[in-house]
């Protein structure tokens, strides 16, 4: 067993912890995320349990609890085992929806564990769900964790120090200070255009629900080509965001205001890096557009691309790192106010968004079992009460819409998804 | 120039078990260079080599390998 020392939150861990607290304060389970793999057959569950045991042994933070240490927070390892929880689907006329029903039951129950894993058996196959609390790790980390569980060579996975702090250490005090001021000015501009929201409801008991839209290989290829055409090498993320903004504009935003603002993360890990697994290693970017800009399809993509290039050129992506670093010394409530509230007092985020990127378990599958599908889910604050998580499995795009019920009108969301399809595929209605 | 570009790419943008073995014509996009990485690489090149790389020339052919990148940057330097 490794020495079990506390691991202080890094700036991005605290950022996600603050949002976790906001979600809990509204009576929901917290900032939990899910990564679901649909498997053609049942994997070796005993082997998977052994690998979970190895995970805790190698990375004690996997079963740690959050402790307060003065003004700061840290993970304190508990040494507790992570039990693979097994669930069986009923075999009746509703059996097709059973895996999703069980999965949402798991997600909606009160939770304090940092990480749980579930096998939901359905016929000869089933769904493997990794459910984790966001301060523990980000989505890229979750993918690496799944790779660790399925790897023939788990020894190659070694933890490394937080990348944000390594980045901050490279900069002089004055560089950090200049970047901080730059980020603050940028934030102030973002907060001056009131964001349209997908709901007017801001309180009351809510449950998490999920709608999954899967695109076939041909549709996914077409979307990739259109993304290249409209947003160039800046890629699919901006294309998804632009299409969502247009879809929401066409469906009519339930809380109609001046524009749209969608924060999204960029990851500091190098592409394909097997480490670090735990902690959050992300900064924040924003896709912003006025409602007028949203009405011109080509113009919107051009605007988002220019905004993105300007952000990188002016180092506004990195500017958020010193801002998050200073945020660590604010109380969760005060920090949450700064993160969420616009000058008018309204919510900044139109939507919670993440692009998980391209994933493939190839011919080997997950623990030797073919992966037939994948989707994601997450809790979010209310408002906005809606999250869109995009990911590609073996070149097939899946969009997972997590939403709060009853805050989000399901007919309205169906309409958004229909418009989103047309926008992504540039069909006649777009 | 290629040495500096390679060092930046494999220190900051892409993980590779043995960067030294990565060839000058090997495909950076297939190795994992994504949109964010391309933009950061362009910013690095502009600062390091004191050149402006036109947005209209940001295309796969110009960033697909170390040789392609070097050719693009040298051409941009000569045009200024």
Structure commentary:
The complex is a heterodimer of chains A (430) and B (80). Chain A has 430 residues and is of the alpha+beta class. In chain A, 39% of the residues lie in helices and 24% in strands. In chain A, α1 packs across α12 (332-340) and α7 (217-231) crosses α8 (236-251). Chain A is globular, with a radius of gyration of 21 Å. The relative contact order of chain A is 0.18. With 80 residues, chain B is mainly alpha-helical. Chain B has a single domain (2-16, 26-79), classed as ACP-like (Non-ribosomal Peptide Synthetase Peptidyl Carrier Protein, Chain A), CATH 1.10.1200.10. Chain B has 4 helices and no strands. In chain B, α1 packs across α2 (35-49). The longest helix of chain B has 15 residues, at 35-49. Chain B is globular and about 35 Å long. At the A-B interface, α10 of A face α1 and α2 of B.
Write the layout of secondary structure elements.
The complex is a heterodimer of chains A (430) and B (80).
Chain A: E1 7-8, H1 11-25, E2 32-39, H2 45-58, E3 64-69, E4 72-77, E5 84-88, H3 98-108, E6 115-122, E7 125-133, H4 139-150, H5 163-170, H6 173-190, E8 207-214, H7 217-231, H8 236-251, E9 259-267, E10 282-290, H9 291-294, H10 297-313, H11 316-327, H12 332-340, E11 352-359, E12 371-378, E13 386-393, E14 396-405, H13 410-425
Parallel strand pairs in A: 5-6, 11-13
Antiparallel strand pairs in A: 1-4, 2-7, 2-12, 3-4, 6-7, 8-14, 9-10, 13-14
Helix pairs in contact in A: 1-11, 1-12, 6-11, 7-8, 8-10, 8-13
Chain B: H1 2-13, H2 35-49, H3 60-63, H4 66-79
């Amino acid at each position: 067993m490794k020495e079990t020392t506390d691991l202080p939150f890094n700036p991005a861990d605290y950022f996600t912890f603050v949002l976790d607290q906001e979600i809990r304060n509204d009576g929901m389970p917290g900032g939990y995320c899910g990564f679901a793999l649909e498997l053609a057959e049942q994997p070796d569950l005993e082997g998977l349990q052994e690998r979970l045991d190895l995970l805790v042994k190698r990375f004690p933070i996997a079963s740690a609890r959050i402790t307060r240490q003065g003004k700061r927070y840290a993970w304190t390892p508990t040494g507790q085992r992570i039990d693979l929880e097994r669930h069986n689907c009923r075999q009746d006329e509703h059996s097709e929806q059973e895996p999703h029903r069980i999965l949402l039951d798991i997600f909606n129950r009160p939770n304090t564990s940092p990480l749980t894993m579930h096998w939901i058996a359905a016929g000869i196959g089933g769904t493997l769900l990794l459910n984790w609390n966001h301060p523990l790790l980000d989505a890229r980390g979750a993918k690496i964790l799944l790779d660790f569980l399925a790897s023939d060579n788990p020894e190659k996975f070694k933890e490394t120090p937080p990348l944000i702090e390594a980045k901050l250490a490279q900069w002089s005090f004055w560089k950090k200070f200049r970047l901080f001021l730059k980020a603050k000015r940028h934030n102030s501009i973002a907060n001056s255009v009131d964001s349209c929201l997908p709901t007017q409801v801001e309180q009351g008991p809510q449950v998490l629900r999920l709608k999954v839209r899967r695109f076939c290989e041909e549709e996914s290829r077409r979307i990739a080509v259109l993304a290249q055409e409209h947003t160039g090498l800046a890629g699919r993320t901006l294309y998804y965001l632009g299409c969502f903004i247009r879809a929401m504009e066409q469906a009519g935003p339930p809380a109609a205001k001046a524009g749209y603002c969608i924060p999204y993360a960029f990851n500091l890990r190098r592409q394909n890096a097997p480490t670090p697994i735990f902690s959050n290693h992300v900064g924040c970017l924003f896709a912003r557009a006025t409602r007028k800009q949203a009405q011109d399809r080509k113009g919107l993509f051009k605007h988002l691309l220019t905004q993105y290039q300007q952000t990188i050129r002016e180092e506004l992506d990195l500017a958020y790192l010193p801002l998050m670093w200073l945020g660590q010394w604010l109380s969760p409530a005060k920090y949450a106010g700064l993160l969420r509230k616009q000058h008018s007092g309204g919510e900044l985020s139109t939507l919670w968004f993440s692009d998980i990127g391209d994933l493939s378990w190839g011919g080997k599958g997950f623990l030797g079992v073919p992966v037939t599908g994948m989707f994601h889910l997450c809790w979010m604050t209310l408002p906005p009460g809606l999250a869109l998580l995009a990911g590609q499995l073996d070149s097939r795009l899946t969009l997972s819409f997590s939403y709060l019920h009853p805050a989000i009108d399901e007919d309205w969301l169906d309409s958004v998804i229909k418009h989103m399809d047309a926008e992504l595929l540039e069909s006649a209605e777009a | 120039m290629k040495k500096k570009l390679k060092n930046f790419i494999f220190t900051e943008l892409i993980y590779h078990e043995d960067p030294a073995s990565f060839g000058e014509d090997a495909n950076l996009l297939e190795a994992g260079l994504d949109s964010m990485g391309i933009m950061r690489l362009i910013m690095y090149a502009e600062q390091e080599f004191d050149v402006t790389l036109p947005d209209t020339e940001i295309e796969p052919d110009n960033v697909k390998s170390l040789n392609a990148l070097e050719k693009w940057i040298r051409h941009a330097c000569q045009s200024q």
